């Protein structure tokens, strides 16, 4: 609000303006000087020790005469004193801001329960296609994706992912161990969810969608630091894929990015990022999966990277797509291959997709590495088992109570206080009720990158729900 200006405020001595007390041009005494000479030192309602006396004292010289030099200033100064003070504008108070590292639950940052909407893209026109899904099935999907009870929590999970990965990109530096980085990400997700995941069944309500992936260089995917493995320190020459998911009520927002501290690998990262964006742009209702895959591959193979004076083409990693590890990444969702194929399946309204691309300077094919990334209960496994090992039966109950089909890392068990679980876990894996997942590797000396987003095919456009300012 602006300040109010009084209309023609009068001076307390009765003068209309400071100019009235100046000496005349003819050289006579200043107007009103006789009042001071005659001893009438109080003008107006009489001396009450207020502002008027202060004003007259300023106008009078030592001998009682008015000082012409002094009379030019009191009026304006007095007027400024009399004017009402400008009311300071109230600063607009913004809501609470996220801490660094992010630890404030998202419910406190968005008390209304309305979370940011992902990027909305219009569908490209698709010619000569026909929808094949039954109308009642379409209606079911469409209703789900437009339901606020579904969209609200899903967008909340996406905002948590954005805030945690932003802090990760800003704070992670060479010299940190992969354990430090993984714990920082996971602590941030749990804090923003306001769910530590330590109570029985709380991990099934919300939490990590799968173990945080921190794959370096020729390890293409599915590595996470665990107890018993050699500690790895991040180096300035490393290319690190960061892949984590946030789930609420079993619905996972899955997104991944790659970090590099050496500009040598910029083209590698750009190739994979642009491939992901191309695939998302090409996606839409009634679009064939094969067409999207071909578009992704074409963009990726148009890039090359020079390392130590040698030029390498960027190749799509063919053996990632379709790996059984994809089954948990999105509850009820699908993934998209990123190499040419003959899949004539068309995308449908109401579907959710995780589109991730991997590019490598190696062969573009992976083999299983040593170690264990994580474990997941076989979807067809029974709820109870009879096992000769007590530790196996107890461990299986813990898995059912806290993870069910959500894939988990060894350190997740340790957070719950589970000890000496390896013998029981090995038995469960040998019986096929629990599956174990190893890291996936390209040839030694190669480098790989990954970018991924989750998007929804809604009625009026696709919402890239995990999109952020970073990518």
TrEMBL record:
<feature type="binding site">
    <location>
        <position position="452"/>
    </location>
    <ligand>
        <name>a divalent metal cation 1</name>
    </ligand>
</feature>
<dbReference type="InterPro" id="IPR002468">
    <property type="entry name" value="Pept_M24A_MAP2"/>
</dbReference>
<dbReference type="InterPro" id="IPR036005">
    <property type="entry name" value="Creatinase/aminopeptidase-like"/>
</dbReference>
<feature type="domain" description="Peptidase M24">
    <location>
        <begin position="154"/>
        <end position="373"/>
    </location>
</feature>
<feature type="binding site">
    <location>
        <position position="222"/>
    </location>
    <ligand>
        <name>substrate</name>
    </ligand>
</feature>
<feature type="region of interest" description="Disordered">
    <location>
        <begin position="1"/>
        <end position="110"/>
    </location>
</feature>
<dbReference type="GO" id="GO:0005737">
    <property type="term" value="C:cytoplasm"/>
</dbReference>
<keyword id="KW-0479">Metal-binding</keyword>
<feature type="binding site">
    <location>
        <position position="452"/>
    </location>
    <ligand>
        <name>a divalent metal cation 2</name>
    </ligand>
</feature>
<dbReference type="GO" id="GO:0004239">
    <property type="term" value="F:initiator methionyl aminopeptidase activity"/>
</dbReference>
<feature type="compositionally biased region" description="Low complexity">
    <location>
        <begin position="17"/>
        <end position="28"/>
    </location>
</feature>
<feature type="compositionally biased region" description="Basic residues">
    <location>
        <begin position="81"/>
        <end position="94"/>
    </location>
</feature>
<dbReference type="Pfam" id="PF00557">
    <property type="entry name" value="Peptidase_M24"/>
</dbReference>
<dbReference type="InterPro" id="IPR036390">
    <property type="entry name" value="WH_DNA-bd_sf"/>
</dbReference>
<dbReference type="InterPro" id="IPR000994">
    <property type="entry name" value="Pept_M24"/>
</dbReference>
<dbReference type="GO" id="GO:0070006">
    <property type="term" value="F:metalloaminopeptidase activity"/>
</dbReference>
<comment type="function">
    <text>Cotranslationally removes the N-terminal methionine from nascent proteins. The N-terminal methionine is often cleaved when the second residue in the primary sequence is small and uncharged (Met-Ala-, Cys, Gly, Pro, Ser, Thr, or Val).</text>
</comment>
<comment type="similarity">
    <text>Belongs to the peptidase M24A family. Methionine aminopeptidase eukaryotic type 2 subfamily.</text>
</comment>
<keyword id="KW-0645">Protease</keyword>
<feature type="binding site">
    <location>
        <position position="254"/>
    </location>
    <ligand>
        <name>a divalent metal cation 1</name>
    </ligand>
</feature>
<keyword id="KW-0963">Cytoplasm</keyword>
<dbReference type="InterPro" id="IPR018349">
    <property type="entry name" value="Pept_M24A_MAP2_BS"/>
</dbReference>
<dbReference type="InterPro" id="IPR001714">
    <property type="entry name" value="Pept_M24_MAP"/>
</dbReference>
<dbReference type="GO" id="GO:0046872">
    <property type="term" value="F:metal ion binding"/>
</dbReference>
<protein>
    <recommendedName>
        <fullName>Methionine aminopeptidase 2</fullName>
        <ecNumber>3.4.11.18</ecNumber>
    </recommendedName>
</protein>
<keyword id="KW-0031">Aminopeptidase</keyword>
<feature type="binding site">
    <location>
        <position position="323"/>
    </location>
    <ligand>
        <name>a divalent metal cation 2</name>
    </ligand>
</feature>
<feature type="binding site">
    <location>
        <position position="356"/>
    </location>
    <ligand>
        <name>a divalent metal cation 2</name>
    </ligand>
</feature>
<feature type="compositionally biased region" description="Basic and acidic residues">
    <location>
        <begin position="1"/>
        <end position="10"/>
    </location>
</feature>
<feature type="binding site">
    <location>
        <position position="254"/>
    </location>
    <ligand>
        <name>a divalent metal cation 2</name>
    </ligand>
</feature>
<feature type="binding site">
    <location>
        <position position="243"/>
    </location>
    <ligand>
        <name>a divalent metal cation 1</name>
    </ligand>
</feature>
<dbReference type="InterPro" id="IPR050247">
    <property type="entry name" value="Met_Aminopeptidase_Type2"/>
</dbReference>
<dbReference type="GO" id="GO:0006508">
    <property type="term" value="P:proteolysis"/>
</dbReference>
<keyword id="KW-0378">Hydrolase</keyword>
<dbReference type="InterPro" id="IPR036388">
    <property type="entry name" value="WH-like_DNA-bd_sf"/>
</dbReference>
<feature type="binding site">
    <location>
        <position position="331"/>
    </location>
    <ligand>
        <name>substrate</name>
    </ligand>
</feature>
